[in-house]
Amino acid sequence: MRETIEPGGAPDDTPGEAARDEAAVSRFVERFAADLAEAGMQRMAARVFAALLVSDSGALTSAELAERLRISPAAVSGAIRYLSQVDMVVREREPGSRRDRYRLYNNEVWYETLTRRDQIVARWESTMRDGAKVLGPGTPAGLRITETADFFEFVQRELPKMLERWRAQKAERRAAEAREAEAG
């Protein structure tokens, strides 16, 4: 795996990608990509996303992705197109170059993904409510669809609270890390 050095950094200053076990990282990328694919993400998009996630910079070129994942540039292009459409990655131009780099949308990609998922859940709830009317609220199928709509309504109500608790927990962890850094 190629070493990634952030501006102002050097390989001797911090442990980074160069110090990692490349085979272990590759196994992790494939394992996480398989988990994402099992949950419904396109397989190649899952692999590309996982590769970006494990890179220290969170950004790689098409050539770097193709090399790391041993895939064709066309496969990278298709995966990037999907990931861009769902706002998980962004394309940016390398300064002074004609090559594009693909970067994780932001450091809160999971937060953003769940927030967008809330919009989908709202649409599913509406569809289920309409379906319950069509099926008849007293029928076994209508009751099952109503319960599904109720679940989606519950998720929509609880998700913002959960995400707020996550932000508070993350802020507290970062504050504790900053205090530890100052103390030691």
- Contiguous helical run count: 6
Report the principal-axis shape. Answer: globular
> What helical percentage do the residues reach?
55-70%
Please identify the structural class as seen in this structure: mainly alpha
Describe this structure in words.
The protein is mainly alpha-helical and 184 residues long. The chain has 6 helices and 3 strands. It has helices at 22-38, 43-54, 62-69, 73-85, 109-135, 140-183, and strands spanning 59-61, 89-93, 100-104. The protein has a 3-stranded antiparallel beta sheet. A hairpin with a 6-residue loop joins strand 2 (89-93) and strand 3. Helix 3 (62-69) crosses helix 4 (73-85). It is globular and about 65 Å long. The protein starts with 21 loop residues before the first helix and ends with a helix. The model is unreliable at 1-14 (pLDDT under 50).
Layout of SSEs?
Layout: H1 22-38, H2 43-54, E1 59-61, H3 62-69, H4 73-85, E2 89-93, E3 100-104, H5 109-135, H6 140-183
Antiparallel strand pairs: 1-3, 2-3
Helix pairs in contact: 1-2, 2-4, 3-4, 5-6
Question: What structural keywords apply?
Answer:
single chain, 184 residues, mainly alpha, three-stranded antiparallel beta sheet, 66% helix, globular, disordered N terminus
Can I get a quick summary?
This protein is mainly alpha-helical and 184 residues long.
